[in-house]
From TrEMBL:
Keyword vocabulary terms for this entry: Cell membrane, Membrane, Transmembrane, Transmembrane helix, Transport
Taxonomic lineage from the root: Bacteria, Bacillati, Bacillota, Bacilli, Bacillales
Protein name listed in UniProt: Sugar ABC transporter permease
Record SUPFAM superfamilies: MetI-like
Location of this chain's protein in the cell: Cell membrane
Homology family: Belongs to the binding-protein-dependent transport system permease family.
């Protein structure tokens, strides 16, 4: 008997599932758009300010550096790179760079060193620590113009407090013309800057020191580490980030220091305290060489960017 084979019905192939497009609901999309517009409304003023007064100023200075212009007349004579060539042949330009370099190195180093010692001293328990913080920080809030005028009286050769004190204690032979002697005028200005900004370094180190665990100081004390040993072996290595921050701020501040120098010495005697900022002011405002001073400003900006870039690279390598 022959059996019949039953053929199973062939099912049609199922079509592959198509991805369902997800759509953002219209209200949510409008909400995100509204949030972005609010964000841009808050950011727009500062962006407009930066573009108008910083980036525009940089490009405008770069443009003017290729012209001979007094800043008043409408006529500009294109001179190409002559302003840059004249600047690099001017010995006063190199002297201003040298003075700025000495000022920056000494102020940054001494301020950081004294600030670190003061911060660690005030970090340890003791009487009158809070009052002493205020005393050391007080010069920071004073205007450089006020300090410059005050120290001009203190440094005065005939009636200044320093020379009067030296005469009173019988050391009149050590009196100096602190702002009139070309050999010491620069260092007298450096001392004023250190007096003003050491408190700022102290506060930054003090706040960073609070992040160090107390157990570390207790362990160092048990091991017999003294004040300076703890400061050098424990505190300083843990505050490298703060040190680099202070160095960057100090370099930028040194490059743009003007008011203190101008009030005390105006770049004199001779050119012994001529800074790059006072040199720039003298060329632009007093001698009305705006095109030339624009070239000086571009070189100053380039130096600041290169130094900051180098410092950031060094910090990145040390962190790794």
């Amino acid at each position: 008997m022959q059996t019949e084979r039953q053929e199973l019905p062939i099912k049609p192939k199922a079509e592959p599932l198509q991805p369902v497009a997800t759509r953002t609901p219209a209200p949510k999309k409008k909400k995100n758009m509204k949030r972005n517009m609010v964000g841009w409304a808050f950011v727009a003023p500062i962006v407009l300010f930066v573009v108008s007064f910083i980036y525009y100023g940089i490009f405008y200075n770069a443009y003017n550096s290729f012209f001979s212009w007094d800043g008043i007349s409408f006529d500009k004579a294109f001179v190409g790179l002559d302003n840059y060539a004249e600047m690099f042949q001017d010995p006063d330009f190199y002297l201003s760079l040298k003075n700025t370099f000495i000022f920056t190195i000494l102020t940054v180093t001494i301020q950081a060193g004294i600030g670190l010692v003061l911060a660690y001293f005030l970090h340890t328990p003791g009487p009158l620590r809070t009052a002493m913080k205020s005393v050391f920080f007080f010069p920071v809030v004073l205007s450089p113009v006020v300090l410059g005028a005050a120290f001009s009286q203190i440094y005065d050769f005939q009636f200044g407090y320093i020379n009067e004190f030296l005469r009173a204690i019988g050391l009149g032979s050590f009196e100096q013309n602190w702002l009139g002697d070309p050999d010491i005028a620069l260092y007298s200005v450096i001392a004023i800057n250190i007096f003003q900004w050491t408190g700022s370094s102290m506060v930054m180190y003090y706040m960073a020191m609070l992040t160090i665990e107390k157990e570390i100081f207790e362990a160092a004390k048990i091991d017999g580490a003294g004040f300076f040993r703890t400061l050098w072996s424990i505190v300083f290595p843990n505050l490298k980030g703060t040190t680099f921050t202070l160095s960057i701020l100090g370099v930028i501040g040194g490059l743009k220091t003007f008011d203190l120098v101008w009030i005390t010495t105006a770049g004199g005697p001779g050119s012994s305290t001529e800074f790059i900022s006072t040199y720039l002011f003298r060329k632009s405002m007093l001698q009305q060489e705006v095109g030339y001073s624009s070239a000086v400003a571009i070189i100053l900006l380039t130096i600041a960017l290169l130094i900051t870039y180098f410092q950031l690279r060094v910090q990145k390598k040390m962190d790794n």
